[in-house]
Amino acid sequence: MASSLAARASAHDMDLVVLSVGGNRGAFGELIRRHGSGVRALLRRMGADPATADDLAQDAFLAAFEQIADFRGEGAFAGWIKRIAARLYIRRWRRETRMSLSLEAPEEDMNAGSGEAGANARIDLDEALKGLSPVERLCVSLCYGAGLSHAEAAAALNAPLGTVKSHVKRGLDKLKGALVAEPSLSSQERAYNG
Fold it and tell me: In whole angstroms, what is the distance from residue 43 CA to residue 82 CA?
């Protein structure tokens, strides 16, 4: 038994998929172990709270197990499972929020992250994503986290392509600004460094 666990742990994802198609639940369990945290992280970046991300990740893996024979190996298994999870999140998002995808961002979102407290905070991608409006975060996460094209994201959100592109561009601009921001230096530190 220990040797079969070691063999699964060292197997390529496609080999595990083939075993899963044959009904090997242990092989599919290894795929869950490998990719579960990445799926949950994507869902959190899209805007799901941790409990919702866990629930949706579980639903995504259940759907993947039921559809495993449809996986053709044309891309990475990680991308395939993330697309399933992203689509599940979008369905839930549509049901719960019925958000307007207008081009106008709310005023409060335009000023997110401003102020000295924001400048001095440790900046990482998850924190930077929190500075985006919910629609921008969703569009950026779909296109760059789940690997959907702008057209696929527009179709999934039932929104015009130009609107999705605008949200992605605005979101990426905000992320770039947040990720390259340096904590403010005192005048003495600038003089020393300059």
Answer: 9
Q: Which of 75, 192, 178 shows the shortest CA–CA distance to 132?
A: 178
- Which residue type is seen at 14? M
Q: 101-186 belongs to which CATH class?
A: mainly alpha
Taking only the tens place, the pLDDT of each residue in 133-186 is: 988 998 998 898 888 899 988 888 888 999 999 999 999 999 888 877 645 444
Residue 89 has which token pair? Answer: 């999140």
Q: Which of 131, 164, 163, 125 is nearest to 145 (CA)?
A: 125
Angle subtended at Cα 169 by Cα 123 and Cα 56, rounded to the nearest 5 degrees: 70
Q: What is the pTM of this model?
A: 0.62
Second-level CATH architecture of 11-98: Orthogonal Bundle (1.10)
Tokens 């080999």 locate to 15
Among residues 38, 5, 3, the alpha carbon closest in space to that of 24 is found at 5
